[in-house]
């Protein structure tokens, strides 16, 4: 009985730890964390096509009281899911303690249909 | 009857496919030429005998300054313009009659030249006039070295109009530029530096030809080989989409 309880508890714990994959089309599905992302929350994303070009605006929040620097770059993808532009260089975005900020971006080519936001802090 | 219709249809199809014929003129320009002539003629002669002596001297001086405007065509930069137009495949080229010293008409009066039959068989004439040509020769010092860079540069700017030989309508008009330069590193010990002038001229000619072909393609909606097709206006852009917020 005791063993069964322990086994059940272990299974429940493991199930709780495994994070479900983000729903397709959600903001989380567009974010790729490379390395570590500490104290920065990637929130809602506004996506539109304006004058033929894909535009994105991403809400970011620094959840800690200390200043943080977010390193990011966008990958612009075509209809087939493959990149349509050259790989961008990494850019740094300083965020003060508890600051909420919006990060705007415009695709470099009208061929971009989708995007990925690659981020890390360290 | 049907056979005749088929033949006429085929003839129309081939006629529609044939690219229009274009004659490309050399770059027309006019320059002011000045002639200065100064002639001095002095003669002196003398005779002396036992009982008489005679002397004669003459002096004449002639000075004139003639100034006239010479009209002609610059023949150096036509080859690459024709080559690049041929590469686009939009036109067939025909050779027009070049403007020579014997030509009676004004080099800029392209309509008279068309009427006089200078461009026989051409549907269009690409008429180019030289706007400016400038050679630059500079020697610049290089910081923290004992070397200099000697630069020979050439820039040519020309104005082009594509004129329909039947209606005299200007189908396309633009200014094109060609640039080229040759650079050599020079040290104090170098006595004489000769920069490669022919190569500069070749580079300018090529750049001018490419610029002409690109601007023609932009205005007439064709494509330049080796370059992606230029989108015309907003036609090739995907339609705008309303903003959506991802959570």
UniProtKB/TrEMBL annotation, chain A:
Keywords: Signal
UniProt signal peptide: 1-23
InterPro entries found in the cross-reference section: DUF1425, YcfL-like_sf
Statement: the UniProt record of this protein carries the keyword Signal: yes
Keyword presence, Signal: yes
Parts forming coiled coils: none
Protein name as it appears in the record: YcfL family protein
Domain of life: Bacteria
Organism lineage: Bacteria, Pseudomonadati, Pseudomonadota, Gammaproteobacteria, Pseudomonadales
TrEMBL record, chain B:
Signal peptide: 1-18
Biased composition (Basic and acidic residues): 231-247
Residue span of region Disordered: 219-247
Keywords noted in UniProt: Signal
Name this protein carries in UniProt: Penicillin-binding protein activator LpoB
């Amino acid at each position: 009985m005791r063993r069964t309880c322990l086994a059940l508890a272990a299974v429940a714990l493991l199930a709780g730890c495994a994070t479900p994959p983000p729903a397709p089309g959600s903001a989380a599905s567009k974010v790729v964390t490379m390395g570590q992302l500490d104290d920065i929350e990637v929130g809602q994303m506004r996506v539109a096509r304006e004058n033929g070009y894909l535009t994105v605006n991403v809400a970011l929040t620094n959840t800690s009281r200390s200043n943080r620097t977010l390193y990011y770059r966008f990958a612009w993808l075509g209809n087939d899911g493959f990149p349509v532009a050259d790989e961008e260089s990494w850019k740094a975005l300083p965020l003060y303690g508890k600051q909420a900020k919006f990060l705007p971006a415009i695709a470099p080519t009208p061929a971009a249909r989708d995007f990925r936001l690659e981020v890390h802090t360290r | 009857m049907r056979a005749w219709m088929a033949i006429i249809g085929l003839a129309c199809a081939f006629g529609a496919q044939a690219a229009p014929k274009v004659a490309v003129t050399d770059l027309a320009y006019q320059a002011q030429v000045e002639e200065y002539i100064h002639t001095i003629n002095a003669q002196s002669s003398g005779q002396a005998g036992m009982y008489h002596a005679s002397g004669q001297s003459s002096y004449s001086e002639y000075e004139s300054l003639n100034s006239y405007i010479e009209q002609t065509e610059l023949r150096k930069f036509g080859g690459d313009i024709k080559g690049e137009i041929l590469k686009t495949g939009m036109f067939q080229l025909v050779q027009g009659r070049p403007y020579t010293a014997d030509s009676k008409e004004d080099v800029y009066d392209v309509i008279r030249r068309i009427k006089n039959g200078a461009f026989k068989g051409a549907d269009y004439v690409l008429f180019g006039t030289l706007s400016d040509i400038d050679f630059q020769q500079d020697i610049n010092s290089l910081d923290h070295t004992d070397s200099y860079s000697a630069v020979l540069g050439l820039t040519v700017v020309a104005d082009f109009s594509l004129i329909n030989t039947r209606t005299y309508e200007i189908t396309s008009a633009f200014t094109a530029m060609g640039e080229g330069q040759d650079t050599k590193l020079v040290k104090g010990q170098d006595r004489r530096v000769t920069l490669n002038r022919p190569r500069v001229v070749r580079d300018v000619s090529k750049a001018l030809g490419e610029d002409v072909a690109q601007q023609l393609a932009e205005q007439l909606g064709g494509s330049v080989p080796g370059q992606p097709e230029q989108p015309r206006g907003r036609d090739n852009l995907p339609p705008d989409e309303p903003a959506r917020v991802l959570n």
